[in-house]
Design a protein that fits this description.
The longest helix is centred in the C-terminal third of the chain and has 19 residues, at about 240-255. The protein is an alpha+beta fold. It folds into 2 domains: about 15-85, Winged helix-like DNA-binding domain superfamily/Winged helix DNA-binding domain (Arc Repressor Mutant, subunit A), CATH 1.10.10; about 85-255, 2-Layer Sandwich (Beta-Lactamase), CATH 3.30.450.40. α2 crosses α4 (about 45-55) and α8 crosses α10. The chain has helices spanning about 5-10, 15-30, 35-40, 45-55, 75-85, 90, 95-105, 145-150, 155-170, 180-195, 240-255, and strands at about 60-65, 70, 105-115, 115-125, 140, 195-200, 205-215, 220-230. The two termini are about 45 Å apart. The strands form 2 sheets. It has a 6-stranded antiparallel β-sheet with strand order 5-4-3-8-7-6, sandwiched between helices. Strands 1-2 form a two-stranded antiparallel sheet.
Length: about 260
């Protein structure tokens, strides 16, 4: 046993017990009576009470008017500070890998910058035919699933001038949405369903589905887009892919909101 291991083995037992009590309050996701907390911890109520009192004094727990105990302001601040330091893109890498393995499609991840939706990560599929989107590419707001989703989740005063610029430079018969009113209709649909999709709108025979990833404060962090050919994402099987992607999104949401059903 080396010196570092000896130091770790020393520890402070009372602190560890106190943190175990705090863990129980955290994992329960609801206020608890002392008896209930005691049963969960398999610890005598009097002993649990002493630790709870100390947690209350330091602001990590609080006693409600009905006698139950819950997390205090310091515990909430501790959690918020940890979430603020979380790199959402790094956090979602394992989910992105799952999507690629399950659907065998090309994937790109995009973020919103001042000049629009920009690709920050691009992954190729194992398919013979790959749709490659270069990192740094700015996605069109009207024709791409990526752009449409970003456009729907940004303030209208920012989006409207950008859309008008695209309409002016790429106006053609049959384009949808063709004006601001049609965009608002599309926006309502996308926000209601929780994703954006296109089937050949940007390129014939190429389909795409985009889902949003929100941070702890429910602000858009980035968008994950799955892109494939008719062989990879058949039009008649798109809903299956969409359901799978929404399931992945729900798993990501559950990381920040444990009450989300997965």
């Amino acid at each position: 046993m080396n010196v570092e291991e000896e130091k770790l083995q020393g520890g402070v037992q009372s602190l560890e017990v106190g943190l175990t009590v705090l863990d129980a309050l955290t994992e329960h996701n609801a206020p608890m009576m002392l008896k209930e907390l005691s049963e969960v911890l398999s610890m005598h109520p009097a002993k649990v009470h002493r630790y709870v009192v100390s947690l209350i004094r330091k602001g990590y727990a609080q006693q409600l008017s009905d006698g139950r105990y819950s997390l205090g302001e310091r515990a909430h601040a501790f959690g918020v500070n940890a979430l603020k330091r979380t790199d959402m893109l790094e956090l979602t890498q394992k989910y992105i890998a799952q999507i690629q393995q399950h659907l065998n499609c090309s994937i790109h991840v995009s973020k919103w910058f001042a000049d629009g939706a920009v690709v920050v990560q691009s992954l190729e599929s194992n398919h013979v035919f790959n749709i490659i989107t270069r990192v740094g590419s700015r996605m069109p707001l009207l024709k791409s699933a990526t752009g449409r989703l970003h456009a729907c989740l940004q303030p209208e005063y920012i989006i409207k001038p950008l859309l008008e610029k695209e309409w002016a430079s790429s106006a053609k018969a049959g384009q949808y949405p063709a004006n601001w009113e049609e965009f608002l209709q599309l926006k309502e649909k996308i926000l209601q369903q929780g994703y954006a999709s296109v089937t050949g709108d940007m390129m014939a025979g190429i389909h795409a589905v985009a889902i949003p990833v929100y941070n702890f404060s429910r602000q858009l962090d980035h968008v994950i887009t799955c892109i494939g050919t008719e062989d990879q994402l058949p039009a008649d099987q798109m809903q299956q892919a969409i359901d799978y992607l929404l399931g992945i999104q729900q798993q990501i949401d559950a990381l920040f909101n444990p009450q989300v059903a997965v």
